Amino acid sequence: MDFNHYNNPYNQNNNIYPEGQRQFIRNPGQTLATVSLALGIASIFTMLTVYIPLICGSLAIVLALLSKGYGKKMLIAAKIGVGTAIGGMALVITITGSLLALLLSSDGSTLVEFGKQLDQQFEQQTGQDLESLLGTSYEDIMQEYAESLGK
């Protein structure tokens, strides 16, 4: 028997594992990178909720940076997570900004008409009058808003 074969630290063919089985060495940041990817994708799919994409996107960026570790390259899943997170947050900011610009640039009659449409849509969907629930209607709210802007 050759005992040096088993005790030799330079031997690359140590049969520690049974035949056909190999140990899977996982990158320590792989889990954080995968979660970053999932949160980045979630920030795109939830972009119409306004707040959730900002939360998911910022968490995705932080987790992608944490998955990098010390001096290592960022994993592909983490890079995709950062890209989708930035894309989702940029879409939300763009949509919100354009709606705000549209609201600020509209004249008074357009705002009042928009309020009437919201009142009608709410009544069709719920079967209840918004004025009886809130004490005021969207039409009145938009009228006050237009008067406060001087339109």
Helix content: 55-70%
Computed over alpha carbons, the radius of gyration is 29 Å
> In oligomeric terms, what are we looking at?
single chain
Count of beta strands: 0
Uncertain segments are none
Summarize the structure.
This protein is mostly helical. 69% of the residues lie in helices and 0% in strands.
Account of the 3D structure:
This protein is mainly alpha-helical and 151 residues long. The chain has helices spanning 4-7, 30-45, 51-68, 76-105, 108-126, 130-134, 138-149.
Ordered list of secondary-structure elements with their pairings:
Elements: H1 4-7, H2 30-45, H3 51-68, H4 76-105, H5 108-126, H6 130-134, H7 138-149
Characteristic key phrases:
single chain; 151 residues; mainly alpha; 2 domains
